[in-house]
Q: What sequence folds into this?
């Protein structure tokens, strides 16, 4: 901050000698604005990097929604930013259609940001966390790929899709019977599927 003072002190001297009083007053006003900004106490530090990862994005979203962060981000609800999620997904689809990978990179980042935003809102309210979201997604992928992780055979993409649909149908049946897929292990789900087949 001392370098700024020195810079403006020299600039003031130059203004007094070679410029009008109005120019001097304008520069003086700018000096006080910068001084005030330099004394701001509620600035939040976030590490400056050449490259960030998904964990940094999660941390940044949590910081923005904290008491020290942005009032707008903190005030949002699932309902208030519902349209944002739809808009970002639509723009990502447009980027795919255009074939522009730079646009797709940016738009996928916006979609990911919306996912983190909703997860942080839910986490703050005590419903679920981003880890819970990842847990549900991992379990779903494991369930729907028995041709990869179990002994089910799928010779090509078409058969893989049929397996996926069969598993999805079994998931719907489990839900209709009041079962919580998030609480079921893969073994429990396999047992459920076997029992349903035997009962037919």
A:
């Amino acid at each position: 901050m001392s370098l700024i003072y020195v810079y403006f002190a020299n600039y003031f001297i130059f203004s007094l000698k070679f410029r009008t009083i109005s120019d001097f007053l304008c520069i003086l006003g700018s000096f006080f604005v910068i001084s005030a900004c330099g004394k701001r106490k509620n600035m939040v530090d976030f590490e400056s990097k050449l490259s960030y990862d998904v964990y940094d994005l999660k941390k940044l979203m949590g910081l923005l929604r904290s008491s020290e962060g942005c009032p707008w981000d903190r005030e949002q609800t699932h309902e208030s930013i519902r349209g944002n999620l739809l808009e970002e997904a639509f723009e990502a689809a447009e980027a795919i259609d255009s074939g522009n990978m730079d646009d797709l990179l940016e738009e996928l980042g916006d979609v990911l940001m919306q996912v983190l935003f909703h997860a942080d809102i839910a986490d703050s309210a005590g419903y679920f966390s981003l880890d819970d979201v990842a847990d549900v997604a991992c379990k779903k992928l494991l369930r729907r790929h028995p041709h990869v992780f179990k002994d089910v055979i799928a010779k090509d993409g078409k058969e893989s899709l049929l397996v996926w649909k069969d598993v999805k149908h079994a998931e719907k049946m489990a839900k209709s019977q009041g079962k919580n897929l998030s609480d079921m292990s893969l073994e429990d789900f396999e047992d459920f599927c076997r029992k349903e087949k035997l009962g037919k």
